[in-house]
Amino acid sequence: MIKKPSRKETRKKRHYRIRHFLKGTPEKPRLCVFRSNKHMYAQLIDDTNSVTIASASTKEKAVAEALEKTSDTEAAKLVGKTIARKAIDKGVKEVVFDRAGYIYHGKVAALADSAREEGLQF
Prior knowledge:
Layout: H1 7-19, E1 30-35, E2 40-46, E3 51-57, H2 61-65, H3 73-89, E4 96-98, H4 107-117
């Protein structure tokens, strides 16, 4: 009998492997993305001080009111724009993108592209 690991387990292994190389600093924080079945989340994290600088998600009232569904690429684009605006307000222009083990496709790519359009560099 073949025992196949779950997708969640393999994503977490991939994420831990990637995190060995990605470090967020106060000048260039880490933009970490998490997606569940219903929502999208993004955080700017300074790993040297273990501080979250800014965060955005589809659970925020302003974002959720502008959306029909919170689980599609349009929601991801809006979260990307929101996190980019918050980052620029805090004085952050450059980030390190942490896709958290997800494939750079679909919602993750849409979030990254919209953040770039708003002025973040990575």
